[in-house]
Structures are given as C-alpha cells and as structure tokens.
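Tutorial handout. Part one gives the primary structure; part two gives the three-dimensional structure as tokens.
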Amino acid sequence: MAVSGSSRKKVIVRKFSREWHSGYIDPQGFAHDGRLELLDMTGKVLAMTLLDVKMMCFVREFPNGDTTDPERLVRRNFTSRPRTPGLWIRMRMKDGDELEGLASNDLSLLEPEGIQFTPPDMRSNTQRIFVPRSALQSVEIVAVIHAHAGNRRKQDLTEQERLFAS
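Part two.
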C-alpha cells in the first residue's frame, strides 16, 4: 500500500465481531479483490476481508482512550427530509442494524465493493461511511433529493400554465 501523506484519510473500521481498528486508508483504492487495506496506528498494513467488515467511517478525529463507540454515530436516521441533493437511502445490515444516509446520485452507487454515503448527522465525528455490499441485507431508496426542489416545482407549474393558456 503506497500512500502519500496528503492522500491518507482517517478511518475507523467496524467489524461484525464488534472489534474495531483505527488507521489510515487511500481514499481512491482502499477496497479491491474482496479486501480492505488499512495502515494502522503502528504503521502496519492490515488486510481485512470485506466479509468481516460492517462499515468503515471516515472520521475527523481518532478516539481518545478505550471506547466502544469510536465512530460516535449519535443519529442513524434523518429526523427530516435532507436538503442536500442525492439519494436518501435506508440500509439494513446482516446483523439487523439500520442506517440511513445520503448517497451521490451517480454511477458510484454501482461500485462492486460497496456503497459510500454521508451520515444523517454531519456534526458528528463521522463525515462519510463506506458499507461493503457483503454487509447489507437490503437497501431502500427513500427519496431522490433534487437541487433547488422548491424553485423547480414553481418553474414546472409556470410552464404547465403556459401550455393551457390561449
């Protein structure tokens, strides 16, 4: 794993065993051939099978001391409709946990290794999440959030009114 200093991202990898690892990854090529490569805090490269990984959280800070919730995902669901454009998705993991997020509405959703998305609480320690496809039981698209949804509706009505005006 050749990772330059500027390209490393802080992550916490949560396994289904409840075990977790913190370290650094290359955001462009961390998952391939069913494995995830992590440069741990001691400088050792850990290669984990994606079948064991529940999620990988891109974090602002590493946890201080011994903690059972290093990701600090306070909210796992949106309390209201997101305002940022994208796909509002709801996922059920193999272990029954549910998690919502906002994924890009582009071809990245078709990545073979997994799905990346933004969590509901942007003020938490976790900025983005990657969930391997093997960790998912189901994925539901709750809504497609368009940019400037309020203005678009008004524009559509104006165009429709012109169609029926004589």
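Part three, for discussion. The chain has one domain: 9-59+75-150. Residues 9-59+75-150 form one domain.
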